[in-house]
């Protein structure tokens, strides 16, 4: 979705404030160049303190004051945190999950299939929309908040699941065979005998229920979108703040939502990206999570939440907040919005700090916001709606993520699908190679010169055949261990592994183990095998790396194969990034991708280069310094304008980047 400006702002909660200061807050926002706030998503009990009794005074105070200070507003539907009176409307309105019945208190504790919940949710959405539909500065609507299925396992949800299986498998014998239910006498010969899904030991069945739960989220968001659509103007957008698997920060693909499906009911993808700060700020999370968001609709997206001060340990060093903001925009976002404006004085998130600290006064973070917001007022027209065209894609797949969760690779489950995805993505990031994130959708494959496939554990034969055909037709493929292992229902294929892909990869294996004291080495760069190791034999492929081990040294750890017009690399284990960088560099060279992304400067990490085409048709190059040190790069292309300073940068001229600094070249 195209926007008429870069949006910069924060979530704002007048109802949380210890005293009345809304005029002061929005005066400070306007001074900082902030032009948008997100409101309303967290305060159902404020809008409807008792059933049918509505009070929108805080809402209108925020809308009226925002209009006065030229601040646009995004309205969130307040359905992710229910009021206490609603929890008492039915004994089972709170979700029944694998751990038992939820208790009231925390957010996201309800059963999103419950008809009583849905009835009251529709009422509050409609009442809220009636209040805001005529406000000209409301630019869009956020559906719910970081929506999940909350592991809903209610009898109702399970009946819906069984009904879906009945339609898919009219012959129950086919269902039993497909899911291998003869094992341990789990066979079901009458749908009425279907057991509680929470007790299953059959990972195929558990994986299918996980997919069903993700579809509940897709349907729930589509239901909300349809209601909002009845009220919104054509110029207003619908979005959702999708989040990510959480490792004390945003890490990778969200397990509980099929975002590529759920986004279909929206006009723009939105996301919440949180990342480590201070010495741990790398830019990797901004890139991988932002690339997922950009890939959902293959378009610009909105960062609806990110940190200002955030968790303890994330307080930005001087320059870091500005670096982070430009990193999001360089990745294709059209906004940066902080959660939240003010630090909260009560409850569980009191130490998740906003722009302002608990004293609600100007501080260093606020002064950094002033720099960012006013720079965007000056140069934002050159930066908004950045179009990015990448030659490399990484496949992200929810069914495979579920498969590896149900069959953890290590006995302690330390490594996950997202660990493997991040291994590939972070290697590209540190090589200054930009990439797209795509689902395992064969209609998208031909758009790319090279596709990376992290642990595609669960895949249909159609998808695997399409990947083979992609290579045969001239594409390049990089595939990791545990790919092509099971079908879409997590049933392990019963022939040569990796199933079907062994043709393009030119390899096979029939045994695997966990590496202990196993090394890998390539051109003098040494590393250690971790995670999982397949004992690969090369058929038509050429082995690049063998395992360094007294027993397993006859097996290949990395191989490359020519198949038809294309090439395919196989990584049979996980190892150090330095080795992978060297392997990728030579592979890209071999297949003719010497410059998978032509960067018109000499730059290497910790300088991150990101680029695209702006609305004026000019090339924009961001140079982002993720380090404490001054960095120097050279403009190897034509003369350019450095937008932040307004200076002309001549060909071959040196550019100095301050610690945590930014430069933006327009060619």
UniProtKB/TrEMBL annotation:
GO molecular function terms listed in the Swiss-Prot or TrEMBL record: beta-galactosidase activity; metal ion binding
Domain of life: Bacteria
GO BP: carbohydrate metabolic process
EC number: 3.2.1.23
Positions of the Glycoside hydrolase family 42 N-terminal domain: 12-378
Catalytic activity: Hydrolysis of terminal non-reducing beta-D-galactose residues in beta-D-galactosides
Keyword Cell membrane: no
CC annotations in GO: beta-galactosidase complex
Keyword annotations from UniProtKB, A to Z: Glycosidase, Hydrolase, Metal-binding, Zinc
InterPro entries: Beta_galactosidase_Trimer, Class_I_gatase-like, GH, Glyco_hydro_42, Glyco_hydro_42_N, Glyco_hydro_b
Keyword Hydrolase: yes
Ranges of residues in domain Beta-galactosidase trimerisation: 392-593
SUPFAM superfamilies: (Trans)glycosidases (SSF51445), Class I glutamine amidotransferase-like (SSF52317)
Family assignment from sequence similarity: Belongs to the glycosyl hydrolase 42 family.
PANTHER family tied to this protein: BETA-GALACTOSIDASE GANA, BETA-GALACTOSIDASE YESZ
This protein's name: beta-galactosidase
Native source organism of the sequence: Roseburia porci
């Amino acid at each position: 979705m195209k926007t008429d400006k870069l949006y910069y702002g924060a979530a704002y909660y007048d109802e949380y404030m210890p005293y009345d200061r809304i005029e002061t807050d929005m005066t400070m926002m306007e001074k900082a160049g902030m032009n948008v706030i997100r409101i309303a998503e967290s305060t159902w009990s404020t809008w409807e303190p008792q059933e049918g009794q509505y009070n929108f005074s805080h809402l209108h105070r925020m809308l009226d004051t925002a209009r006065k200070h030229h601040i646009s507003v995004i309205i969130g539907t307040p359905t992710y945190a229910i009021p206490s009176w609603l929890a008492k409307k039915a004994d089972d309105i709170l979700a029944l999950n694998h751990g038992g019945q939820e208790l009231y208190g925390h957010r996201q504790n309800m059963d999103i299939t419950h008809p009583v919940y849905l009835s009251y949710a529709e009422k509050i959405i409609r009442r809220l929309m009636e209040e805001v539909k005529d406000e000209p500065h409301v630019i869009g609507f956020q559906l719910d908040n970081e929506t999940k299925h909350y592991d809903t396992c209610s009898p109702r949800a399970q009946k819906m699941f069984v009904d879906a299986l009945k339609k898919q498998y009219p012959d129950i014998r086919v269902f039993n065979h497909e899911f291998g239910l003869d094992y341990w006498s789990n066979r079901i010969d009458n749908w009425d005998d279907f057991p509680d899904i929470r007790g299953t030991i059959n990972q195929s069945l558990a994986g299918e229920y996980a997919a069903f739960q993700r579809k509940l989220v897709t349907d729930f968001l589509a239901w909300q979108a349809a209601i909002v659509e009845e009220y919104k103007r054509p110029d207003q957008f619908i979005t959702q703040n999708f989040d990510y698997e959480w490792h004390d920060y945003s890490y990778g693909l969200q397990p509980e939502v099929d975002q590529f499906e759920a986004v279909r009911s929206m006009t723009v993808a939105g996301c919440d990206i949180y990342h480590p700060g201070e010495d741990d700020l790398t830019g990797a999370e901004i890139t991988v999570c932002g690339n997922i968001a950009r890939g959902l609709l293959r378009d610009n997206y909105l960062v609806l939440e990110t940190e200002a001060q955030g968790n303890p340990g994330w307080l930005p060093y001087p320059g870091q907040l500005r670096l982070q903001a430009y990193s999001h925009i360089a990745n294709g976002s059209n906004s940066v919005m902080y959660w939240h404006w003010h630090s909260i004085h009560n409850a569980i998130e009191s130490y998740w700090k906003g722009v302002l600290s608990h004293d609600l006064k100007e501080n260093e973070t606020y002064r950094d916001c002033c720099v960012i917001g006013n720079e965007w007022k000056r140069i934002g027209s050159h930066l908004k709606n950045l179009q990015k065209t990448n030659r490399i894609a990484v496949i992200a797949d929810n069914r495979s993520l579920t498969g590896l969760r149900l069959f953890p690779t290590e006995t302690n489950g330390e490594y996950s699908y997202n660990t493997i995805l991040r291994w590939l993505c972070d290697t590209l990031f540190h090589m200054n190679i930009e990439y797209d994130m795509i689902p395992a959708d064969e209609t998208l494959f031909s758009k790319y010169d090279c596709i990376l496939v992290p642990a595609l554990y669960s895949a249909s034969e159609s998808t695997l055949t399409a990947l083979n055909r992609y290579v045969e037709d001239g594409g390049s493929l990089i595939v990791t261990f545990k790919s092509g292992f099971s079908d879409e229902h997590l049933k392990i294929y019963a022939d040569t592994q990796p199933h079907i892909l062994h043709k393009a990869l030119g390899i096979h294996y029939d045994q695997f183990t966990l590496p202990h004291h196993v090394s890998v080495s390539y051109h003098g760069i040494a590393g250690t095998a971790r995670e999982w190791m397949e004992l690969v034999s090369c058929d038509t492929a050429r082995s690049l790396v063998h395992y360094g081990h007294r027993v397993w040294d006859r097996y290949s750890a990395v191989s490359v194969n020519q198949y038809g017009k294309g090439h395919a690399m196989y990584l049979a284990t996980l190892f150090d990034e330095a080795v992978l960088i060297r392997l990728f560099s030579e592979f890209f060279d071999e297949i003719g991708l010497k410059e998978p992304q032509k960067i018109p400067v000499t730059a290497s990490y910790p300088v991150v280069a990101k680029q695209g085409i702006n609305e004026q048709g000019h090339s924009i190059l961001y140079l982002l310094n993720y380090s404490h040190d001054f960095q120097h790069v050279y403009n190897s292309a034509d003369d350019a304008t450095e937008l932040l300073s307004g200076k002309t940068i001549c060909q071959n001229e040196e550019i100095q980047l301050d610690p945590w600094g930014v430069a933006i070249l327009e060619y």
